[in-house]
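Recall the central idea of this unit: under ordinary conditions, the amino acid sequence of a chain determines the structure it adopts. In this exercise we apply that idea directly, starting from the sequence alone.
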Amino acid sequence: MNHSRSPRPSRASRAKDAPNDIMTTKDAAAYLRLTIPTLYRHVSQGKVPCSRIGGRWRFDRKSLDRSLGRRDRGDDVSGRNKILGIVTGIKRSSLLAQINLDAGPYKLTAIITRDGFDALKLRVGDSATALIKATEVMVIKEDR
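Accordingly, the structure predicted from this sequence is:
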């Protein structure tokens, strides 16, 4: 009989897989794919649901998922394709909407359909996740 032990899952993996888990700051940052300083900034701005227990911040996975609008749909995408941010600007036209996100060191701009924007009901200050689907991005400097 083989009594070898399977490798212990990482903290981030345990945090992701535990449905009712109360997470530490480190676990929550890994789960949300944020740096710890960025998570603390969101906490101080009231953007992330959490509680202080024993003088330390604790995060409930279900509350985090609800605040991000996550649902258990089975169509999860790679975490590398998602960037959590705060909506800092919105410009609307009859067909399109431009959404500006502040994602810590990153500033992102997305152009979405007006119908999609109306369905999301986004406002400046809301938390939102950018889902990156492009296979390539090009930037060209014009000669003047």
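The chain has two domains: 11-67, 81-131.
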